Amino acid sequence: MIRTTGPLGASGGAGAVESFIVNVGDGPVRTCIACRQKAGRDELTRFVFRPDQHPAVVRDVSATLPGRGAWVHPDAKCLDKALTTAAFARSFRTKITASDLPRPDTEPKENG
Fold first, then answer.
1. The domain that contains 82 carries what CATH number?
2. pLDDT tens across 15-53, in order?
3. Which tens digits make up the pLDDT trace of 69-96?
4. Is residue 107 part of a domain?
5. Maximum Cα–Cα distance for the chain, whole Å?
6. Does residue 90 share a domain with residue 39?
7. 3 or 26: whose pLDDT is higher?
8. What is 59-112 written as a DSSP string?
9. Which terminus has fewer CB within 10 Å in the chain: N or C?
10. How far apart are CA 18 and CA 2, in angstroms?
């Protein structure tokens, strides 16, 4: 049992220390905006809101574009659910119209 003193564990319990030992060695964890399941960053596709472009919601292939990102599983089920619900608007915290959304049949190979 790990004993701690001070502000983290004044009672000497191990609970405070164990809460800091989560995902050690794992990569970043993101949540799919459609199905709300957590997954590794490499398992999800990132979308970014770019109001200066049309459509305004673009797929961030390299996951490096500036701005707030929304993460979605790259399968058809999650993509369709994200496109048909208010998931993108909720994630970007702004009003998203149907013309702002990407078309599912266009698959960019690089950021542009």
1. 3.30.1230.10
2. 555 444 455 557 889 999 999 999 999 999 999 999 888
3. 999 999 999 999 999 999 999 999 999 8
4. no
5. 58
6. yes
7. 26
8. EETTS--SS-EEEE-SSHHHHHHHHHSSHHHHHHTS---GGGSPPTT---SS--
9. N
10. 9
